[in-house]
Each structure stands twice: as C-alpha cells, then as structure tokens.
Design a protein that fits this description.
- The protein contains five helices and nine strands; from the N terminus they run βαβααββαββαβββ.
- It is an alpha+beta fold and about 180 residues long.
- The chain folds into two domains: about 130 residues, no CATH class; about 35 residues.
- The strands form three sheets. A five-stranded antiparallel β-sheet has the order 2-4-3-5-6. Strands 1-9 form a two-stranded antiparallel ribbon. Strands 7-8 form a two-stranded antiparallel ribbon.
- The longest helix is centred in the first third of the chain and has 10 residues.
- The radius of gyration is 16 Å and the shape is globular.
C-alpha cells in the first residue's frame, strides 16, 4: 500500500519542549488497546491523541498530548484525535479525526488510519467522522484550517490552494 509520510510542521518551540517525552504507546492488537484504556480510564469519555507511525502502527497518548511527542518526534502516516466506544466486550471507534495542527495531515491519510485500526483489530467507521482540511497560505505562510469549504486565509485574506501544500511529503510503501 502506498501512503504519504508527513513531517512535523508545527512550532519548533513545541517540538523542543516535548523532545524528552515518551512516544505514544503502540497498539497492535485489541488486547494492547484494552491494556492502554485500563491505564487511561478517562480516554473512553474524552478521547485520545493518536498517530500512525511509519510502520503502520497506531500509537496512543492521553488526549492533551502533543502529536509530535506521541510520534517520538518522527514523521507519521496520520495524526489526529480518536475516541473509542465499548459495546459489551468489544471496542470500536466512536469518533476519529485528522485534527493535528502539528502535522496537518491531508484527509487522504485515512487509508493509514484504517490500516492501523484493522491491524489492531478495532472496528472503524468508513472514514473520518470529522475530517479537517489544512492549507498553508502562499502569501503569508500561515497554516490554515479550512472551514465550510472557504479556502481563504484567515490571516491575510488571500485565496488558499485547492491541494494540500503544508510541506513536502514523500510516498512510502507499507505492507497491508
């Protein structure tokens, strides 16, 4: 499967401030998720920070963690927020987004999220329950979150590009 690797595009002072933090916990099975959730009892109610690392593994950290810390400072295939739901003995994804202002991944990172959740034996929706569109303004260089299809920079009123443009990204192959 061909996916994109996203580099951190957020503030450098945030990257430096969390450089010594532990990376998120790899979740490669339903039992890994159960162990992580039992160690983080608030996660079912409030959600978690996640990344998909370059090996295609889901990594989780508490909700208010920085994505770059969860990723151990590395590139990611996806990043955002996730909330799980327990139904009887099984877990599924209740909500999932690509909302990460540190990596600003495009919505096409869903393929990596679906792959990681499938590998972890977690039932997922068909796509993001909340998809975020990020663009960098070509005029002022600021990162923008596009709302309601309005591709206009909130900082300088310039038109934003239709395609993702936050940083160069590279294609990588990963086994499914």
């Amino acid at each position: 499967m061909e996916l994109y690797a996203y580099t951190y595009v957020g503030p450098e002072e945030i990257r430096r401030s969390v450089a010594s933090f532990p990376a998120g916990t790899p979740i490669t099975s339903a039992s890994d998720l159960e162990v992580w959730l039992s160690a983080h009892p608030d996660a079912l109610a409030e959600g978690s920070t996640y990344v998909v690392d370059l090996q295609g593994r889901l990594r989780l950290a508490p909700r208010r963690s920085e994505h770059v810390a969860c990723a151990g400072g590395e590139e990611v295939l996806a990043a955002g927020e996730v909330r799980f739901r327990r139904t009887g003995a099984s877990l599924s994804v209740e909500e999932v987004s690509n909302q990460s202002t540190g990596y600003c991944p495009d919505t096409d990172c869903w393929a990596a999220v679906a792959l990681a959740l499938g590998r972890a034996e977690v039932t997922a929706p068909r796509g993001f329950t909340h998809a975020v569109i990020f663009r960098r303004c070509d005029r002022c260089g600021e990162r923008n979150l596009v709302k309601e299809g309005w591709f206009v920079c909130v900082f300088c009123d310039a038109d934003l590009p239709a395609g993702w443009n936050l940083a160069p990204r590279r294609r990588i192959q990963i086994g499914s």
